[in-house]
Amino acid sequence: MEKKYVKLQTSIPGPRSKELLEQRNKYVPRGISNNCHSFVKKAQGALVEDVDGNTYIDFAGAIGTLNVGHSHPRVVRALQEQASQFIHTGFNVMMYESYIQLAERLCKLAPGNYEKQAAFFNSGAEAVENAVKIARKYTKRQGIVSFTRGFHGRTLMTMTMTSKVKPYKYGFGPFAPEVYKAPYPYVYRRPEGMSEQQYSAMIIEQFEQFLLAEVAPETIAAVVMEPVQGEGGFIVPDIAFVQRVREICSQHGILFIADEIQTGFARTGKYFAIDHFGVVPDLITISKSMGAGVPISGVIGRADVMDSADVGEIGGTYSGSPLGCRAALTVLDIIESENLNDRAVKIGDRVIEKMKLLAERFESIGDVRGLGAMCAMEIVKGKHDKTPDKVAVNKIVKEANERGLLLLSAGLYSNVIRILMPLTITDDQLEEGLQILEESIEAVLVTDPSVSVGR
Questions:
Q1: Which of 308, 337, 366 corresponds to the end of one domain?
Q2: Residues 6+ positions from 339 with CB-CB distance below 8 Å
Q3: Containing domain of residue 386, as a range?
Q4: Mean pLDDT of the chain
Q5: For the chain, how are helix, strand and coil distributed in percent, rounded to 5?
Q6: What domain count does the chain have?
Q7: What is the pLDDT of residue 166?
Q8: Where does residue 9 rank: exposed (0-12), middle (13-18), buried (19+ CB within 10 A)?
């Protein structure tokens, strides 16, 4: 296929990007990672142009924040209009209508036939922090349960809840108390010879044992679960596990919090991924694609739970900013008018189909998985031993970037290639991106002698 959208005028990174990279290394700490070493000039839809005139197809979506694409014209107009009226008053100083409109729409969209309320913040980590505060206030309990391989943020509490030690936690302790990690299913890495059904039953039993061996359920305020683990490697749990955890929470008065920060806003083919599992959470945390790139996050939940915090106990200076609220309202309009939930399913079907074909070609693609347009493949030394191959993934991501495809890795072992392209991507752009992905994999797994993989 001839490249129609990717235009490479220079090597990657180009001369101007290299100049800026020198300044970045001098003035910005190395602790902030950079996946691609080029600098953006402009972006539209699923295409990104750098300062050297190179055009990329975006399969990263700013780590899942751009379901409606870069600089969607309707979002741009909404932000321009808002900025011309007022930029910020502080909702706790002088309120604005867009905050109320957004809260109402999200409460109506969220699962559950009960009265709901919503509060808005700045980032995904803040949303999780505040969900924890609200849960503790309501239940008058302290314990918080998250799951192995889960990711919930980089603040003290959310870093504690996050499972991956390096690079997110190493050297940053001590951590917050009364946070516990429960087992979460990972079908691909189940014990050899065990069926998926047997494995599901085992994980459920382990969770029940966890409440006997690690922490008493009477002390737990909330269980926080990603319906599909994001940073953990796009791990999709089976329905029985999610439903059983919900049952146990209800049985013991524990709040069930769905962390939808990466899975929400049409990414999996529904507004909220938890809807795939037939489960109604007590609280939902949201962010990322909520604002189309404008910082905003939120907590939606049962009105009696949300209202448990007293006046002034939650909030913040920029929480639920006017720009963020207007962007989020426009995102909801776009999802509905452009049928992005349906589009996510179609994109996901095509990506999974392509990944399965690649898995037939390459022995090192051990697993292909996903839900809607949240798709991934796991790279291993060989299909039989399943040894994670982080080195190969790093090379594939770098190769893709140099060929004009923005790509991300994930997983506890950093050996998963994840796909988070804007849902507004065209069919032609999607196919060209998948072609570059295949070429990048081939370049590393077939022609790179430094990568030792089973073939």
A1: 337
A2: none
A3: 339-449
A4: 95
A5: 40, 15, 40
A6: 2
A7: 86
A8: exposed
**Quick one: what percent of the chain has pLDDT higher than 90?**
93
Give the whole-angstrom CA distance, residue 422 versus residue 435: 17
Domain CATH code at residue 348: 3.90.1150.10
Per-residue pLDDT reduced to its tens digit, 170-215: 888 899 999 999 999 999 999 999 999 999 999 999 999 999 999 9
Q: Round to whole Å and give the CA distance between 258 and 238.
A: 15
pLDDT(454) > 80: no
Reported pTM: 0.95
Flag whether 59 is in a domain: no
DSSP 3-state of 214: coil
User: What is the per-residue pLDDT for 455?
Assistant: 38
The structure tokens listed for 92 are 């706790």
29 upstream amide cis, omega within 30 of 0: no
Q: What is the CATH number of the domain that holds 140?
A: 3.40.640.10
Distance CA(402)–CA(395), nearest Å, equals 11
pLDDT score at 451: 63
Q: Which of 314, 337, 360 is the last residue of a domain?
A: 337
Same domain, residue pair 319 and 248:
yes
Q: Identify the CA nearest to 67 among candidates 401, 328, 358.
A: 328
Task: List, in order, residues 6 or more apart from 283 with CB less than 8 Å away.
Answer: 131, 134, 135, 222, 255, 256, 257, 258, 299, 300, 301, 302, 305, 306
Q: Let me know the angle formed at the C-alpha of 319 by 316 and 321, rounded to the nearest 5 degrees.
A: 140
Question: How far is Cα 130 from Cα 195, in angstroms, rounded to an integer?
Answer: 39
